[in-house]
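Lab notebook, page 48
Experiment: co-folding of the full assembly
Goal: obtain a model of how the components sit together before planning crosslinking
Operator: M.T.
Materials (sequences as entered):
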Amino acid sequence: MTRHTGSRLRPLVATFVSAVFFLPLYLVLTNVFKPGHKIIDAPAALPLPPTLDSIRQVLTRPDHLFWYGLINSIEVTAISITILTVLSAMCGHYLARSEGLGAKVMLVVMLAGLMIPPAVIIAPITEVLRSVGLMTSVAGLVLVNVGYYVPFGVFVFAGFVKTIPIEIEQAAAIDGARRLRIFWQVVFPLLRPASASVLIFLGVWIWNDFLNPLIILGPAEGTTVTVGIYRAIGEHQQDYGAVFALMFLATLPILVFYLAFQKHFVKGLTAGASKG
Amino acid sequence: MTATHTRTSAGGRRGRQRPTAHPPRHGRGRSARRLGHLAHFGLFGLPSLALYACIVLIPIGISVYYSLTNRNPFNPPTQWVGARNYQNLATDPDFWKVLTNTIVITIFVTAASNVIGLAIAVLLDRRGWLYNALRGVFFTPVVLSGVVVSVIWQAILTDDGLLNSTLRGLGISDPPGWLSDPDLALYTLSWIVTWQMAGFCVVVYLAGLQGVPHELYEAAAMDGAGPVARFRSVTWPLLAPSVTINTVMLLISTFKIYDQVQVITNGGPGDGTTSTIAFDVIQTGLVGNRIGVSSAIAVVMLVFVAIVSTVVLQLLQRREVKA
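Observation: model returned without errors.
Model output:
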């Protein structure tokens, strides 16, 4: 096609393709606000008039599945990403600024961790956690998250520290500042873009994680919201309204978090995608 | 994951040696410098390394050890069996089926997400609010959890789901059992994962496309190159780094696929028609308690991931250099 027809057709084609792609998400959104019988009769129709019955049903479940899950998810995600950012920023700094063979080997060993499937290590992990009494606890899940995701953080920070002139640190060292103070007061503030990438990527991954919380938290200590969805579909498979409402509410916090940091997400994702 | 990897290796390739962060003060010798370095490691490097070792390295070691035993926590004692678990796997048709399933899903998702992602990126590679909004549409599934995506598609694709009731309404009396037909379920599952991952490729390809200098298109157009020729000779070679990122990222993340299998098909229909390696490891080990056998499967999986991602990364980076 010529440039001219292309420019007129492109918005239409793009919108149509996107609409088809979006259809599954539309089906969830529209049915969250519909009464049960209308979901079966007219699944694709707009929710007119909209109802909050399904949302209310999820929020007032007698077993508090959503609220317990939400509290667990927030706790696990917030604590994990805070520790991960601090630890991996420091470790990334160490690896970026060290030249010894030991540091090089350590970098390779840590980067190898990026491709280790969780299924390979989950069984031994449960035994390690059980032996220290952290199985079925939020602390245990946080520990696993930190150990498993620290390579990703180290990776991002090590790459970013290299772009920061070392002279800044040397100047502070000459002024007599101690190593830790230099790092926290001089270097860490300069790492903000890397910290944002790490926070948003790991925040989304940990919030959405299924296998680790399913196995480590267990049913006794409650679940995260993501595992909660899985447990809910086991109970009432046919009640799409309730399931969709639960998914909607479980996704909302992380979606808001993602939208707030979106710029860094895409930037982190696409670093290196273009030859610069 | 891989995005940053490429960045780091690019930084490494630059190869500029930087002086150490904390030069020794005058009048202090090598031992002081070594002490300073040790303190730097102990304070900055060690905590991360220690946690990583406890959660990843040591469990891998335990997995390797268990794979050489008949461990079953409910059937002690644990005994050394040497390579027997591996030998059994080699002749176990179920294991080969699981391995084949995983390879089929991985290749399907990697290829389809790349093709679809590139096509959509080319389509959306324009400025303006409309294209910005549409990019957001494609990226949303990437931020959703595998569980959410699974439940959505299950509601659509089960036998009495939204798709088949629509098809019946259109007069098709016997629509396919997307998730209940043993010949179809594996491909349906692959499509669901593709739908989720395509947006990732869209974003990476869009960034790649925006990095292509405009003058190159103009030069090619002046040489009389049509849209297809321009794409082949200008766009495609310059997208090589994006292809690398997408391919490696998708290979690694699809090979370990677990959530979608657990939620949507539970390995079925029938006998393991959609079971993947990760799913099999969990079923055999944590559900079936045959830790010895599941550890052997896990070790095979680990070796497979390591070999495939190393080889693919090498191949694709060689292509990048040529381009």
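Interpretation: Residues 65-97 of chain A form the longest helix (33 residues).
Next step: discuss with group before ordering constructs.
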